[in-house]
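S.,

Sequence below, as promised.
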Amino acid sequence: MAIQCTLAPFINKEFLVTGAWGEPRTGHIHAGIDLQTREAYQTGIGQPVYSMSDGVVTRVDQTNQGTGYGALCIVWNQANNDLWLYGDLSDNTVMVNVGDRVLQGQQISIEGNPSGTASTGLHVHLEKENQADGVFKFGYANSIDPTTGTGIENVVNYSNVYIY
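The prediction came back faster than expected:
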């Protein structure tokens, strides 16, 4: 039985937390959470990733640009200054452009497993900052726990399966 959550980048797909915010990584502290759909794990096919808020797209990289995030999309919710980074997306699958307005629940890409990011399988890296200038600063020191208010626990736990 899946745990119902209140906000997630997947809709009607069961998923797991495979990387926690704040966990030590080689050379850095993980600034987001990694989420993997059960379907991607079982089939090897990445599933759609949806925007978790209304906002404007401030950055898009279609491939791994040496940032460690793989393909990525950043959405800024100007109403509350939240910036959501969706990283480790499948290369060349970001469906929005810089300056586009997106709505919560709008598909923006597909979960991926980019080379050079030390990932362990298909997933989406979800990172959150709160910046009044709308500029994503990157890194743990600038991040806030992206699970707050989502109903998702910030812990790697393969027995907790979530659905939104």
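The first strand starts at residue 3 and ends at 4.

Coffee later?
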